[in-house]
């Protein structure tokens, strides 16, 4: 068992400002009971791995009762544990063990919608049009002579109309899967219920919350409902084309009053509970969610979406730091998560690659060489960990896991596959269960096969194979996080005034620097002692391509 690490909050309640948080997708982390699905006991049994890795907190993706219509984000009870994943006692045991090891615990909160199996929604269906039960959700009559057309042209993020008709003729709104009806956040009972959920988990020792679809709660539901005409209909990519705060259902100004209520509750705890917004909005709008009297921090996905280009990355990093500073928050950095192609694959695909098409080809068009791809991913990670702010890691990236792009159609479970008419393969490729050992039916994930098949190549990536292996990706992460704890001081970044065009170079206090070579040719290193490099420095004083080094 790993020894407890330093508990940052014991000396600083703002521990989250430069923390490293490890995202756990419980259903794919470890299976303790042998049913093929990861569970809370499996997470608890491997928390020593995360403590030894050197992270500050574990973020749990949803573990609530769910039929898995959207990987657990369709929740039937926001204050319980899915029986397949354990019990509330199991959750309490997880929190206790995490805290014993010096790890904070962050949980996902999904406030925009419930499952269609939630008691509220079942009550709404039974109660009928105009009932108080339906007022908690967004029900509307349809258009057309017999109400046969959806109330608006609003589109689901997963594809198709965002409206579903029920047998009595009314339609309900679902911005995601049809099994995820949207709540009406104008309703006092909806607001009070979520506050009760925050209290429930905070009282059980949870240290913070990740807020799913934080920009989607407030909606313009005044009559008549207005069409969007395709602008920002299915997602956030075209939101800059819309007057800020005016879209019918994305990023409306009214949402911030909701989060100010939350912050008052979160600050009533000692230490205050943290929160981070998942808000796919432009920079200046994202800063609003991160204000101290709201959630306090917001994910910055622009860094994740930037290609392997020095000029583009420099601009994004500069802009992200300025945005966070304007809100009084710290920046957030993400390379992989449960919704995107793993960066050990993504960063080495040619610029402009259509990731949906690449997945549909089974990862063969264009082909990807895993060796050079991993080298680039390691360099990207060491660069990210040198930046001021919080770094969010995704389970398995410390092993260098690539995207499993060749999952056969018959095993796919992401609703994106069906709702897109088989034009988008979805997110299952980054959710394949983790390999812990080099042998076994699921490489140590559990005693039997996992809920998604693992490729034979996973054996070489297993924790068992990499532990203690010089130069392994796991040992690189461990070394980087140990060193990061020693080096961090302040949140300043100073770009080097002169560096080659393909090199990112910046200084951090007190007197260490980070250099990343994003070009195709080696470059000379400045004077100083190399502390850690993402790959071999075969020639002293020379930084190879696709390599990051920290220098004293």
List keywords for this structure.
552 residues, alpha/beta, seven-stranded parallel β-sheet, five-stranded antiparallel β-sheet, disordered N terminus
Mind explaining what this structure looks like?
It contains 16 helices and 17 strands. The chain has helices at 40-45, 47-53, 88-100, 119-127, 188-203, 255-266, 283-289, 301-305, 310-327, 343-346, 355-360, 370-386, 415-419, 458-461, 463-466, 473-487; strands at residues 20-24, 57-60, 104-109, 139-140, 163-165, 171-173, 208-211, 274-277, 332-334, 390-394, 494-495, 503-508, 512-517, 523-524, 530-533, 542-543, 547-551. Helix 12 (370-386) runs parallel beside helix 16. It starts with 19 loop residues before the first strand and ends with a strand. It has a seven-stranded parallel sheet with strand order 8-7-3-2-1-10-9. Strands 11-12-13-17-15 form a five-stranded antiparallel sheet. The chain is globular. The model is unreliable at 1-11 (pLDDT under 50). It is α/β, with parallel strands linked by helices.
């Amino acid at each position: 068992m790993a020894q407890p690490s330093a508990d940052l909050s014991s000396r600083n309640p703002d521990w989250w400002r430069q923390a490293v948080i490890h995202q756990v997708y419980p259903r794919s982390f470890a299976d303790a009971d042998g049913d093929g699905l990861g569970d809370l006991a499996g997470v608890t049994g491997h928390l020593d791995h995360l403590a030894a890795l050197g992270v500050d907190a574990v973020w749990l993706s949803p573990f609530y009762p769910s039929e898995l219509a959207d990987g657990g984000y369709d929740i039937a009870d926001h204050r319980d544990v899915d029986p397949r994943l354990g019990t509330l006692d199991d959750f309490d045991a997880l929190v206790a063990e995490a805290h014993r090891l010096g790890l904070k615990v962050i949980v996902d909160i999904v406030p925009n919608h419930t499952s269609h199996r939630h008691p509220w929604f079942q009550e709404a269906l039974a109660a009928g049009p105009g009932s108080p039960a339906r007022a908690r959700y967004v029900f509307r009559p349809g258009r057309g002579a017999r109400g046969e057309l959806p109330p608006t042209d609003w589109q689901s993020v997963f594809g198709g109309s965002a409206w579903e008709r029920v047998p009595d003729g009314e339609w309900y709104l679902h911005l995601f899967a049809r099994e995820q009806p949207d709540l009406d956040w104008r309703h006092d009972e909806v607001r009070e219920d979520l506050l009760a959920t925050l209290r429930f988990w905070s009282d059980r020792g949870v240290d913070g919350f990740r807020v799913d679809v934080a920009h989607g709660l407030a909606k313009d539901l005044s009559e008549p409902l207005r069409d969007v005409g395709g602008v920002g209909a299915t997602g956030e990519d075209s939101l800059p084309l819309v007057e800020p705060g005016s879209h019918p259902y994305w990023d409306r100004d009214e949402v911030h009053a909701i989060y100010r209520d939350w912050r008052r509750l979160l600050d009533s705890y000692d230490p205050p509970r943290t929160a981070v917004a998942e808000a796919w909005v432009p920079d200046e709008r994202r800063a609003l969610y991160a204000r101290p009297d709201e959630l306090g921090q917001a994910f910055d996905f622009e860094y994740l979406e930037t290609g392997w280009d020095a000029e583009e990355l420099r601009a994004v990093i500069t802009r992200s730091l300025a945005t966070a500073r304007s809100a009084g928050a710290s920046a957030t950095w993400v390379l992989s998560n449960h919704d995107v192609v793993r960066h050990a694959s993504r960063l080495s695909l040619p610029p402009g690659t259509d990731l949906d098409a690449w997945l549909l080809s089974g990862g063969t068009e264009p082909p990807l060489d895993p060796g050079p791809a991993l080298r680039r991913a390691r360099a990207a990670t060491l660069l990210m960990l040198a930046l001021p702010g919080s770094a969010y890691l995704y389970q398995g990236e410390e092993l260098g896991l690539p995207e499993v792009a060749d999952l056969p159609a018959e095993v796919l479970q992401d609703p994106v596959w069906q709702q897109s008419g088989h034009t988008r393969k979805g997110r299952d490729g980054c959710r394949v269960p983790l390999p812990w050992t080099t042998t076994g039916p699921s490489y140590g994930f559990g005693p039997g096969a996992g809920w998604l098949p693992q490729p034979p190549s996973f054996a070489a990536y297993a924790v068992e194979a990499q532990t203690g292996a010089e130069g392994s990706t796991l040992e690189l992460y461990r070394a980087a996080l140990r060193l990061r704890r020693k080096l961090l001081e302040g949140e300043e970044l100073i770009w080097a005034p002169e560096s080659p065009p393909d090199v990112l170079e910046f200084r951090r206090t007190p007197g260490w620097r980070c250099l990343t070579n994003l070009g195709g040719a080696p470059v000379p290193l400045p004077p100083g002692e190399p502390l850690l490099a993402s790959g071999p420095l075969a020639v002293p004083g020379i930084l190879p391509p696709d390599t990051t080094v920290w220098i004293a």
